Structures are given as structure tokens and as C-alpha cells.
Amino acid sequence: MRSFPLHRHASSKTEPVNSPGHDTVQVETREGTDSKSGANATLAWGARTDIGLVRSHNEDSFLVQPPVFAVCDGMGGHAAGEVASSIAVSTIGSHAPLHADDVLLGAAVEAANAEVIDGAKTGKGKPGMGCTASCVLIENNRMAIAHVGDSRIYLLHEGMLVRLTRDHSYVEELVDAGEITADEARVHPSRSIITRALGSDPDMYADHFTLDVSSGDRIIICSDGLSSMVEDSEIEATAVSSATPQAAADNLVAAALEGGGHDNVSVVIVDVLDDGILEAHRKLRRRRIFSAFVLLLVLGAIITVLMALYVNSSWYLGDNNGTVGIYQGINDNFLGIELSHLEETTSVSTSDLPAATQESLKHGLPASSEAEARATVESYRDQIDADKTAAAVAADRSTTGTDAPATVPATPSEGAGE
């Protein structure tokens, strides 16, 4: 078996053990086996491939290039099947998209098909060589899938195993037609006949689709060396009871060997640790808080501008140390900041005005404009001048009336009445 060079080597850290009652054969020490495992912030993975108990060489290849994972089952015999599967995983790895785009992932599989065909022509392998390809790309809560052949992809969700891919095989067509059951297909004499694979048809196309995954989901990608030896119900039970992805891969390979190991068997397990939903909610909440903060700033700015416009367009008359002053703004303060300023002083003394007017000036007597404020001051001045003139006239009259001589009554003429 030839594995893709971008695999990460298995960690030396001690892993959790299997649940009780699920001890299996020790595949780690077998000759012709290989494994890869690792983890990052969002995914954990484990993979194992084994030559099996019958075959003399391993034609399977697997790809562990997070977030891309694949299994390719080679066909064509020695120096052919393993070459085809190796070319396929290498090409899928180099052509895989950066995001969970199933169309582009399918295009990567189709590019691998072209490379396998070209490899047979250029002598990298043998004519007639080919392989299957089942691959996934996991990005947060989205998983893109591309698939050709009879390797399989399963999803273990909340303890239930769901098969996601359809085998491109003769027996699958018989199952679809209702002529045989799925259990009968596993042991059917024609179960090895593939109806679609990489390496034979330049126009081959890959099945592809995208689905949602969530934290806690486990994805199983395997060659038919597992699915032909182990029933889906046992795959489910083993996957549920295995503590880690690597343990699950090891246990499933061991189950295939215990079932007969008639073919090479390869299993890649991927656990979704963090589907990104929680972080997306956190980001959404932060965006909402930031948007609310910006909105408050904008509203504050608008209110400030409106207040400034209102203050600058407001006028009033006030008592400026005993004289009438013209003020721009409003007679108030905000956080200790005065909202008005003295625009002009006048010579009009507040003491010359009526008591009611003086009281109003202490609190600020509003004016609709500067012109109205000036007009009011002029009216005060005219009123004061008029009052002073009237008072002077009244005083003058009063003084004149007091100083005038008394009128002498007329003396009767002499001889009157004579």
C-alpha cells in the first residue's frame, strides 16, 4: 500500500480504550498495515489500511489531508491497482478545493480519472488499471462529497449509521431492481463487477453533493474490503463503541479480518469536533453588539448635531449684571457645559423695566431670532424713554401748579350801582 505523503503520523499519546466487550485482533502489529491519525481544532481523524488475509499486495490508497479525506481501491493487479489508487489520491489532494464545494471536489475526482488514464498510456502503470474514489471535504458544518465506484462513505449521527453513497456496481443495480437483498449482494458472485470507476472512461463523472454535519458526528470512508466483510449493523456498533477515530479504524479493520479478510481493507474515520455553529453564533452576537454600539454612536452624533443646530438657532434676553444682554443658545447647561453665550450687551438697565419683565429676564426671555431680540431691546429702550419723558412731564406739571400766585378776586368798580 502506498499512502499519500501529506499524512500526519500517529500521535504517541495514549488513547482511550475500547468499551468493554469490544476487544479485537491487534492490527497495529500486522505486516502490511499502515495508519495515520491526528487532530486540529475542528476535526480528529484516524486511518488504517491492511493487506487482508488473502491478497499478496495492497492496492488501496488513502488520503488524509485535512479537511480532505479519501479512500481509493485499486484494480488491475500487481503494479497496476496500487499505482492507479496512488495517482488518484495524489491528484485529488492537489486539485481539491479550499472550501466545501462538491462540484469542485467532483472535478478533482474527474481530474484524477484523467491522470490514471494518462498514467496507463505513459507507462506509470499497466493498461486497464483503475480504482474507486470516495472523498469528503469538511468545512465547519458543511461536508462536500464526491464518489465513484463501490467504496463507501457512512455518517454516524447520534449513534445511527447512515450510508451516504451508492455503489456503482452490478449487484447494487440488482438491489435497486429488487432482485436481491443488500445482504445477498455482499456474497453475490458478481459483487466485484464495477459499473463506474476511474481509469477506463475519459467521460466518467463523479457523483457529488453537500450535506450538513454537526459536532459529534463521525464520518467513515472505507473500501469494499470492509463493507463486503462486515454488515452495516456491525459497522455501526463498532463505530459507536470506539473511543477515538484511530480506535474505530483499527476495530473496523480487525472486524473485516475476523470476517474473512478476503480483500484489502482501508478505513478512514473523521470526527467532527467543532462544526463552527457556536463560533458563528458568537461572531453574530459580537456583530450585533458592535452594530448596536455603532447605531448608538450614530444616534448620539445625530442628536448632538440637532442639539447644536437648535442651540445655535435659539436666542433669548437675559440679565447681564444689571443690564439687558442678548444671548445665543438656551439658558441651560449639559454636564456642566453652558449651552449659551453672551452675543451682545446693551445699555438698557433692568432696573428701569417693570418687575415682571425683570423676573422674566432672570430666567431668560426667549426670542425667535436675533432680530426679534434686538427689536425687543429697542422696545424696552423706547418704553423706558417714554416712561422717563412722561414722568418728567408729570413732575414738571406738578412743580408748576405749586409755585403759581393765587388769583385775586375782582374789585367792584367805584360807583357801581350808582
Elements, N to C (H/E) = EEEEHHEEEEEHHEEHHHEHEEEHEH
Per CATH, the class of the largest domain reads: Alpha Beta
Low-confidence stretches: 1-15, 413-418
The second-level CATH architecture of the largest domain is 4-Layer Sandwich
What is the approximate shape? Answer: rod-shaped
CATH 4th-level superfamily of the largest domain: PPM-type phosphatase domain
Number of helices: 10
Strands across the major sheet, in which order? 1-2-12-11-8-9
Bin the strand percentage: 25-35%
CATH topology of the largest domain: Phosphatase 2c, domain 1
Helix content: 25-40%
Oligomer: single chain
Biased composition (Basic residues): 1-11
GO molecular function: protein serine/threonine phosphatase activity
Protein name: Protein phosphatase
InterPro entries: PP2C, PPM-type-like_dom_sf, PPM-type_phosphatase-like_dom
Write the layout of secondary structure elements.
Blueprint: E1 33-39, E2 43-50, E3 60-65, E4 68-75, H1 81-95, H2 102-122, E5 130-131, E6 133-139, E7 142-148, E8 152-157, E9 160-163, H3 170-176, H4 182-186, E10 207-212, E11 218-222, H5 224-227, H6 232-241, H7 245-258, E12 265-272, H8 277-312, E13 315-320, E14 323-334, E15 337-349, H9 355-363, E16 365-367, H10 370-403
Antiparallel strand pairs: 1-2, 2-12, 3-4, 4-5, 4-6, 6-7, 7-10, 8-9, 8-11, 11-12, 13-14, 13-16, 14-15
Helix pairs in contact: 1-2, 6-7
Domain PPM-type phosphatase: 44-272
GO molecular function: protein serine/threonine phosphatase activity
Transmembrane segments: 289-311
